[in-house]
Amino acid sequence: MKILEIKNLCKVYGKGETRVDALKNVSFDVEQGEFVAIVGPSGSGKSTLLHILGGVDVPTKGEVIISGTDIGKLNETKLAIFRRRNIGLIYQFYNLIPILNVEENMTLPILLDGKRPDKKLLNSLVDKLGLRNRLTHLPSQLSGGQQQRVSIGRALMNHPAILLADEPTGNLDTENSKEIITLLRKFNRENHQTVIIITHDDRIALSADRVITIEDGRITKDTGKAEVSA
Ligand SMILES: Nc1ncnc2c1ncn2[C@@H]1O[C@H](COP(=O)(O)OP(=O)(O)OP(=O)(O)O)[C@@H](O)[C@H]1O
Ligand SMILES: [Mg+2]
Questions:
Q1: Domain map of the chain by residue range?
Q2: What is the pLDDT of residues 17-56, one digit of tens each?
Q3: How would you classify the pairing of strands 2-13 and 61-66?
Q4: Could you tell me which CATH class the domain 2-229 is placed in?
Q5: 44: CA distance to ligand 1 center in Å?
């Protein structure tokens, strides 16, 4: 099943002398359950692409279709709801709320959606992420790796159709990086969770099912869809 379709995506920042064509006619599809790495030089448009896929930025032209919904056709309110329910975002610097503890950070998006957190899911994520004895800690009381595990947990609490990660290991040492990637892989394999990850790390890219290279706003290489077992 196609979980993501991107058609002729263009993104222009600024105008006149400061105009930057950050994305130039980018198109590709992703099947459910794929683990895709996006690589490319600094400034090539990777984060821009991920932000547009995640509905936190809008394209200048083109379409993003997630699970059959053209997100460009949603109004602001509907998009916010769609985003909360379908997209999990993970950033390099975790973006946790400093005054909320681990459990509160993980359940916040669900509460914002006016729903009750799925306790069973929360418990299973807490165990899988090794956060059981850190539930009442604040982000400032956690290591970088632990903070990133909380942000993964937060992203997974709404059963997202797609998990988008922008250099999730960019701020971590080798050991913690490996652990984060192992966890993302585990969720990908066990739950058929679709993952799209931007990385500068060749080892992570090599471990992906598929690698898409972006240079100067265009896809210059795509190793193609992997065989994803249903
Ligand atoms: N808000 C903005 N206003 C103007 N130009 C921007 C803006 N955001 C990004 N750009 C430009 O768009 C281009 C793509 O930026 P982007 O952040 O997507 O690159 P990237 O591939 O993620 O780079 P990096 O690997 O360094 O994170 C860059 O040339 C950047 O300067
Ligand atoms: Mg970037």
A1: 2-229
A2: 999 999 999 999 999 999 999 999 999 999 999 999 999 9
A3: antiparallel
A4: alpha beta
A5: 7
What whole-number distance in Å separates Cα of residue 188 and Cα of residue 194?
A: 6
**Cα separations (Å) of 196 from 20, 184, 205?**
24, 10, 11
Q: CB-hemisphere CA count at 13 Å for 18?
A: 3
Which residues make Cβ contacts (< 8 Å) with residue 34, sequence separation at least 6? Answer: 3, 194, 195, 209, 210, 225, 226, 228
Nearest to 43, CA basis, from 23, 59, 27: 23
165 φ, ψ (degrees, to nearest 5):
-130, 125
With the most atoms of ligand 1 within 8 angstroms of its CB, the residue from 17, 23, 44 to mutate is 44
Sign of dihedral through CA atoms 116, 118, 119, 124? negative
Which residue's C-alpha comes closest to atom 29 of ligand 1?
43
